[in-house]
Amino acid sequence: MAKIPRGSSNGKSSKDSASNDYSAEMAETRRQFVKNKTGAEMKHVGTFSIEPDTLPGNIEHFTGVAQVPIGLAGPLVIDGVAAKGEFYVPMATTEGTLVASYNRGMRLTAESGGVKTTVIDDAMQRAPVFVFEDARAALAFGKWVTDNFELIKAKAEETTSVGKLRDIEQYAVSKMRWLRFNFTCGDAAGQNMVSKATRHACQWMQSQHIAGLEHFALSGNLDTDKKHSFLNSLHTRGKRVVAEATIPADLMKSLMHCSPEALFKQRQLSNMGAFIAGSVSNGAHFANGITALFIACGQDVANVAESSAGYTYSEITPNGDYYFSITIPSLVVASYGGGTGLATQRECLETLGCYGKGGVNKLAEIIAATVLCGELSLGAAVVADEWVSSHDQFGRNRP
């Protein structure tokens, strides 16, 4: 069985190659390997402007790039806590109509005075599980954790200058006890940060000779990393962010070709449909805007699994206008670390003014405002019977 060629990470020779593993030459070697094995020519995969030596920590077996088209939508007008003013939003997608739809929603909200955005909570978790000889020992341990929280917090924070342990939730089943460590993580998404900090704290806890402890695992799957859970929706994972807008009735009719009353009625039908289906969201397509921004801005795209769950809410105001809000309870984003520093991703973040220190809440608010615009646009397209025709116009790449 032939192995994928690799070099050394430091440029010194290895048994497989004397080349640096993160180099244009090593990437070309791998593309040639694929061609020899499959006959496929990776011509476009091998065309890129990023420097391979910037990639350690982001990719292994670097071979090339997947180029996803980016479109700009905007201006998106936001009146937020961290995000204020006009923004031109980079969206990476291969789905025709998507950028046009979000752009239409942004025009509607801009002419209505903008989108109000607020980050209302912030937490990143790791949830180890402790197994005891019986439920009484587990209960006693839970009381000990509560009594010694400050000591546990100090130990956890020894591993990070940024992460802060906010609190520890406890969940008990049989003789098991899960501890859900909640951290704030500055401008990082923080999954690796909180894993390291939680492990360090738990090692200290185990050194205290906990009575009746039989087993420990750093993750007991209660943090539900990169998958949806109602626990995250209730208690927050990443950023909990709200976006709101009030659309004047005349603008709704002139720009979206439907009335607030018709859109409100459709919202109630959509709520019932989501309820019947057991959906994790009563919205139309949170994942579209979030994914497009995640790819463009260097976010961990797997976090769309939890980030795209959310809630919409609407009202007809006393004067007949349309109030609409979206809440994203578990938006996992970063303005520093991970893929944010890569060349094209950094450029997109800089376009939004979100790269680096102090940018994460601003990015969260921009994403939430973008999602709101997409929900308004798609909802109106369904009501006005423009959904299919718009896809026929913009979403077909076949003759």
Describe this structure in words.
Keywords: NADP, Oxidoreductase. InterPro entries: HMG_CoA_Rdtase, HMG_CoA_Rdtase_cat_sf, HMG_CoA_Rdtase_eu_arc, HMG_CoA_Rdtase_NAD(P)-bd_sf, HMG_CoA_Rdtase_sub-bd_dom_sf. Residues 1-24 are annotated as: Disordered. One of its GO terms (molecular function) is hydroxymethylglutaryl-CoA reductase (NADPH) activity. The chain is an alpha+beta fold and 399 residues long. The protein folds into 3 domains: 17-67, no CATH class; 72-121 and 237-394, 3-hydroxy-3-methylglutaryl-coenzyme A Reductase, Chain A, domain 2; 128-217, Alpha-Beta Plaits. Helix content is 39%, strand content 22%. It has 13 helices and 10 strands. Strand 5 and strand 6 (176-184) form a beta hairpin. The longest helix has 24 residues, at 360-383. Mean pLDDT is 93; it is low at 11-18.
Radius of gyration: 24 Å
Please report the distance between the alpha carbons of the first and last residues: 43 Å
**Total individual domains:** 3
Can you count the beta strands? 10
Unreliable stretches: 11-18
Counting DSSP H or I runs of 4 or more residues, the number of helices is 13
Q: According to CATH, what is the topology of the largest domain?
A: 3-hydroxy-3-methylglutaryl-coenzyme A Reductase, Chain A, domain 2
The CATH class assignment of the largest domain is Alpha Beta
Q: What is the beta-strand fraction?
A: 15-25%
Class by helix and strand content? Answer: alpha+beta
- What is the percent of helical residues? 25-40%
Q: Main sheet?
A: 10 strands, mixed
Q: Which architecture of the largest domain would the CATH scheme give at its second level?
A: Alpha-Beta Complex
Q: What best-fitting shape do the alpha-carbon axes yield? A: globular
Instruction: Identify the CATH homologous superfamily of the largest domain.
Output: 3-hydroxy-3-methylglutaryl-coenzyme A Reductase, Chain A, domain 2
Question: Could you spell the SSE succession in H and E letters?
Answer: HEEHEEHHEEHEHEHHHHEEHHH
What is the average per-residue confidence, as pLDDT, rounded to a whole number? 93
